[in-house]
Amino acid sequence: MNKFTCVNDLSNLDDALKLAFELKKDPYKYQTLGKNKTMLLVFFNSSLRTRLSTQKAALNLGMNVIVFDINAGGWKLETEMGVIMDGNKPEHIREAVPVIGKYCDIIGVRSFAGLKNREDDYSEKILQQFVDYAGVPVVSLENATRHPLQSFADLITIEEYKTKKRPKVVLSWAPHPKALPQAVPNSFVEWMRKTDYDFVVTNPEGYDLSPSFMGDVKIERDQMKAFKNADFIYAKNWASYSEYGKILSQDKSWTISDRQMAVTNHAKFMHCLPVRRNMIVTDSVIDGPDSLVIQEAGNRLFSAQTALKLILDQLK
Ligand code: SN0
Questions:
Q1: Series of mean pLDDT values for 10-residue runs along the chain (316 residues)
Q2: I need a surface site. Which of 22, 206, 209, 301 has the fewest CB within 10 A?
Q3: DSSP category for residue 192
Q4: Does 181 sit in the ligand 1 pocket, CB within 6 Å?
Q5: Ligand 1: which atom is nearest the Cα of residue 183?
Q6: How many H helices and E strands in the chain?
Q7: Which domains does the chain carry?
């Protein structure tokens, strides 16, 4: 694999899942694979799980790791081509990216959606410049439209905890005080569409995800109906796609509570974290016995280690 930016970068999802479980059983199985190789993680945005799990994954594979919070110590980067750089951005991303590529063998990059210009975000302007100019394989640590390491960990978690071959999985929008990107839900949809699960998305009007991600996935406007007999509830807030970046609702009746969970098939509760308690989900649900949020975060290590292993195999 020469990059990991979406599910289609994996040549075979089943094989990748098998590798993830193999690594979970024996995390140090390939501990010399990354000897004398360096992973460099570039963060344009905050991170807890991605930062720690990806570092640990690289260390388990014997790599060296450099973490660069580019907004805290790097030059402010110009990302537009063709501009006269007489403002407050001293360095162009066109030089910064290939330079960073000189100091490592794999680059990870996090750059959230700006939520101002849909075309800019959906063209993955920043990520694409890394892919085009880094000269080394690039791993997405959440970019404008996707968060593949998260979705892969979500899939690992569902495979681990499902009690039937074809579970019912529901992605539910939930309210939030801030406008958030669509990367996590887009990616989750993209990965779920690779499975044969019974998959439903529920969200209020105005919150339908991009048709390019949704394809023929069913949208159920009635959240209670969607939750009926569900085996997994995956909660997430996102800002509107059609009225791009806008908050159209903060309706607390969408907050996942015991009321909705009661109509499920003892569904497991999932969220990528960080989560706003009593906005997205009530304390009783997230602290309850069916919450998988910590296990899910734990699996971030194995999604990252799998992706890095597949890239290292090809660097040898
Ligand atoms: C990010 C998002 O894409 O929704 C990262 C999730 C892994 N989440 C946030 O930025 C949450 C920020 C907040 O204020 O709650």
A1: 98 98 98 98 98 98 98 94 97 98 98 98 97 98 98 99 98 98 98 98 98 98 98 98 98 98 98 98 98 98 98 93
A2: 206
A3: H
A4: yes
A5: 3
A6: 13, 12
A7: 3-146+300-315 (3.40.50.1370), 150-297 (3.40.50.1370)
